[in-house]
Amino acid sequence: MAANGHYLVTAQEMREMDRHAIEETGFPAMVLMENAGRAIAEEAAKLAGEWNKTSTTDRKTNGFRWLILAGKGNNGGDGLVCARHLTDLGHEAAILYAAHPDSLQAEAAQQRDIVRKLGLAELTLGTNGQDLQKIDWNQWDGIIDALLGTGSSGKPREPYASLIRAANESGLPIVSADIPSGLDADTGSVSEPCIRAALTVALAFCKRGLMQYPGAASAGKVVVRAIGMAADSPNLIGVNTYLLNKMGLSRRLGLEIPFNREQDTHKGTYGHTLIMAGSAQMSGAGLLCTRAALRGGSGLVTWMLPGQLIPMLTGLQPEAILRGLDDGGSGQWSSVQTAELLQTAKNKQAVVIGPGFGRWDGDVSWLRELLEGIGAPVVLDADALNMWADYIKETAVIPRRAGAEPEKGDAVRYLAGRKGLTIITPHPAEMARLCGLNTAEVQGDRIGISRQFSREQQVIVVLKGARTVIAAPDGDVYVNTTGNPGMATGGSGDVLAGIIGSLLAQGLEGIQAAALGVYSHGLAGDRAAAARPSNASLIAGDIIEAL
Ligand SMILES: NC(=O)C1=CN([C@@H]2O[C@H](COP(=O)(O)OP(=O)(O)OC[C@H]3O[C@@H](n4cnc5c(N)ncnc54)[C@H](O)[C@@H]3O)[C@@H](O)[C@H]2O)[C@H](O)CC1
Ligand SMILES: [K+]
After folding, report:
1. Most CB atoms within 10 A, among 108, 298, 361, 547?
2. Which ipTM value was assigned to this complex?
3. pLDDT classification of 384: cutoffs 50, 70, 90
4. Is the torsion defined by CA of 102, 104, 105, 106 positive or negative?
5. Is 361 annotated as a binding residue?
6. For the packed helices 428-435 and 383-394, what is the interaxial angle rounded to 10 degrees?
7. CA-to-CA distance for 69 and 524, rounded, in angstroms?
8. What percent of the chain has pLDDT over 90?
9. Taking residues 322-335, what's their average pLDDT?
């Protein structure tokens, strides 16, 4: 991975760094473009080498025959440089201009002149793209998509759109320059159409959209290549979105994997986690959460649950302390015994509230009282989040959209005023309820919405789903890299809540616990999936065993 492999940037941030490199550092724009094009060519050639090994057809040359689709901006310029370097590497390359070649400007126009003088083959689409049908895609082995980069806005217009559709339908492998054309570099939303790449060579820094779905699926494999910009330029302009990989954990959060203990310690060093979870129909949620907190390393774990459930759960997890609430034989949570709950929470270093809870009359004010009384860090999950969403709704501080000013209201003070820190672990539908949005709106800008909610409510947000997003109130956001679709299974979230609670109890800071919890939950899921014939058969208990 490149030295800058843990930053995630927006198109605007990339422009600022671009400007800084060119204007403040004096780095020639032409050199950036040259480095970009060469990096794309090298990665494309590497990939072609791998394809050649597995291919059954004989090729004329060792090299591939590439069709470079060039847009009229700098992304197109990168494509022209790439074409030149591909021929240097023994491949064939022809350039298809999506716009009239005369419309290219500045560095891209210079590159056009160079490839012309070198005699590279050139195709155009005619004035209105009318020549699109004449393209014989069988002539080529692969496509370089240099149509649109970080300067694109909105849906691809004609003839770009038709060209993108045709490239996808050609069945040829596609290597995208910087981002797949049609992708929103900031959010990961994709237009219809959007290039479906086998490989994306992200230039200088990884764009956020490459790491959020559905964009991540369109990008294929992502390689980040340095192009001459200083590796710390994101810091100069205040980039605060990071990839949660080993580098991100180590450089941003001071955490090393594997996460080992100091020698001279005892179980008191590792804290006591209180799990408030499970009810008659969902006792398993509490059990999974408790077990995960134990495997997560908490020195002690107490599981508090409706007392009627105790006899049947005794002995299932001998390492845990069980504490039954008087439930009048119902097996359900209710608003009674707040004082006892608060007393139990007093000497705990972390409290997890919500897995397998269910809802009951008066639960919203019950939760509020509890949260005001608990001084330790709290993880709120599942129905506890639905209670809080109802509270926000009742106090009418919705709707709230990314970028809008927070509205003043009780709910804003509600958690911000807690003594201890709060981590919430919503899935997209729960997040939508909390924000007064629909699920599609949340998924359309997971990073922006998490960041805003975290700032407003002063809570750490863990927005679950493929590429979980973790947002801290100071504005820092992390995007997780571990995990697999096999983890979309009942109980997986209960396990995550238990791990994060456990790490909090061990004294990690909130953002450290959330980030390491999410990362290791995903890593364990990946290990557990690898040990099975298919990730479809993964169940939540497997994740715990693989921790
Ligand atoms: N970041 C860097 O340091 C470097 C980046 N390089 C590459 O440059 C692009 C960004 O280039 P830019 O010229 O700003 O924009 P684009 O090439 O992405 O496209 C702009 C071009 O396209 C037209 N356009 C915009 N939206 C649409 C649309 N929806 N449909 C059709 N046409 C559209 C617009 O009118 C412009 O003319 C970056 O991604 C890198 O690949 C540098 O080469 C090296 C330094
Ligand atoms: K592109």
Report:
1. 298
2. 0.98
3. very high
4. negative
5. no
6. 20
7. 41
8. 83
9. 95
